[in-house]
Please model this.
Amino acid sequence: MNTDQLNNNGTIPAYLNEGLTPMSLNEELVRIRIQEAQRFAEEQRLANRLASAQRWRRLSRWAGRRAARFDL
Model:
């Protein structure tokens, strides 16, 4: 910490100390679990988009083959 930021009595001003409040262990664990849940949800969204794209590609190929049979 830079000594220029200390008050005359050697304490950190309240506006500088706001971001430095220590988290309890439970709060830290909750924060980690939330981040893991968000990461898992994002991975699931990506997996679902991939599966959906594969289904549409398969359907498109089938429709193309079917249309080709009926072309004159």
The chain has a mean pLDDT of 83. Residues 11 and 17 are 10 Å apart (CA to CA). DSSP finds two helices and no strands in the chain. Residues 25-70 form the longest helix (46 residues).
